[in-house]
Design a protein that fits this description.
Number of strands: 14
Structural class: alpha/beta
Strand content: 15-25%
Strand order of the largest sheet: 3-4-2-1-5-6-7-8
Shape: globular
Largest sheet: 8 strands, mixed
């Protein structure tokens, strides 16, 4: 931290951050890229001007819009948006390439050119002090190579944040170590978990920054009040309410969550989220005679209340999704823990190493049967004496992922402060 700004909470005041991201929510009801918006908006609340460059999407046409004080979203048209469909309305770039490789790779150069032009225009207009690239490909590559960001790169104020899809894709490339070393030489590479950081280090990335995600602001100030309101006498097994918080897409273990709920006494499942699997999940629940309480995408106080009023969150994907990837550290798990809700989750990605042992988090073998998982849930919920039985332990697990801590880690990765860079 510089001598002029010893307090990290003041380090962003009056500074401008340019965010490059291949996905960003269209509005407050959109879950795609929500964690990026949460972090950008939290930085804005610390006094930064945040400018986001991201592709147009089906529900967010090309335009420059201010969605919150201090955050400006600049969307650009791409070939992937043909027919009104955005790049990651349902799936990400690596998944799009694997699903339709010839079409996606044919359009990729035009997409990258459009992204580069939009980034150049934003930098010309804003002269930002620092650059934050979410996902190594394409945003990190753009931040590491585009001449528009030479000024920030020389000052050490460009960070490229790696996520699980990035690292999985990088590990499969033939020249992955060369690309990893090149990225590391040009920008500060950060990882959202120690599990990803270890994999990046093996590929040759040096000095990986700790950029664990923040989650408390995703619930807003309503979380504590909602948890307090939910602290009630122990619920009977017939009224147990498990919850799923997720985009309703493949690879999230949603079908398994319904199947496990069917084996519990109350045969009930609360679903917070929306997506293309909504109808099929409803049909599956009806067939299994599960009371599926579908609330759609929820945010803020409503999300906090619906989470805190649940008994346990399910996150039950298999070892890998259909693209051979694993979830890293799901924000849904962090949000549930921060709301004082216990979690039953598959032992995948960073989950086995990210948390200390706790009764509030039960990890299950991804290959366990539905009946075996249901038995874990019964053991967990059968020990509860009140709705908030696990609250203190759950919130203790989530504490390192507080949004303020996440912003402080970002500031440190940018060199301790986002002070204006030197003139070129």
């Amino acid at each position: 931290m510089s001598a002029q700004s010893p307090d990290p909470r003041r380090a962003l005041r009056g500074q401008s951050l340019l965010w490059l991201t291949s996905t960003y929510p269209a509005d407050e009801a959109d879950g795609a890229g929500r964690f990026v918006a949460d972090l950008a908006q939290a930085c804005a609340r610390r006094g930064a001007r945040c400018v986001v460059v991201t592709p147009a999407r089906r529900s967010a046409p090309r335009s420059s819009i201010r969605i919150e004080t201090g955050v400006v979203v600049r969307r650009f048209a791409t070939p992937f948006a043909a027919g009104g469909r955005g790049l990651v309305d349902v799936e990400g770039l690596p998944q799009r390439i694997q699903r339709a490789p010839f079409i996606a790779l044919a359009l990729l150069p035009a997409y990258l050119a459009a992204f580069a032009a939009a980034a150049q225009a934003a930098e010309n207009d804003e002269r930002c002090d620092a650059v934050v690239a979410q996902w190594l490909v394409p945003s990190g590559v753009l931040a590491a190579s585009h001449p528009a960001f030479q000024r920030q790169r020389r000052a050490g104020r460009v960070v490229a944040v790696a996520h699980s899809s990035d690292v999985s894709a990088l590990e499969k490339l033939p020249a992955n170590r060369a690309l990893a070393r090149w990225l590391s030489a040009n920008v500060r590479v950060g990882a959202t978990s120690a599990w990803l950081a270890e994999r990046l280090t093996k590929l040759g990335v040096t000095n990986v920054a700790d950029l664990r995600l923040g989650c408390f602001d995703a619930l807003g100030g309503a979380a504590e009040a909602a948890v307090a309101d939910a602290g009630a006498p122990a619920t009977s097994p017939q009224s147990w309410t498990p919850v799923v918080l997720s985009r309703l897409v493949a690879g999230k273990g949603l079908e398994r969550a319904v199947a496990v709920a069917a084996r519990l006494p109350g045969r009930r499942l609360r679903v917070l989220g929306d997506g293309p699997l909504a109808a099929s999940l409803g049909g599956l629940a009806a067939g299994l005679k599960v009371d599926l309480q579908a609330h759609g995408m929820v945010t803020g106080a409503r999300k906090a209340a619906l989470l805190a009023d649940a008994d346990v969150l399910f996150f039950l994907p298999g070892r890998q999704d259909r693209w051979g990837q694993q979830d890293n550290l799901p924000v849904a798990v962090l949000e549930a823990l921060s709301a004082g809700v216990a979690v039953v989750a598959s032992a995948v990605g960073a989950l086995p190493t990210a948390f200390a042992p706790s009764d509030a988090l039960r990890l299950v073998d991804p290959d366990a049967s539905d009946g075996e998982i249901a038995a874990v849930v019964v053991d967990l919920l059968g020990a509860k004496t009140s709705r908030d039985h696990y609250s203190d332990g759950a919130r203790a697990l989530a504490a390192p992922f507080a949004m303020d801590a996440a912003i402080d880690r970002l500031i440190a990765a940018l060199g301790g402060t986002a002070a204006a860079t030197d003139a070129p």
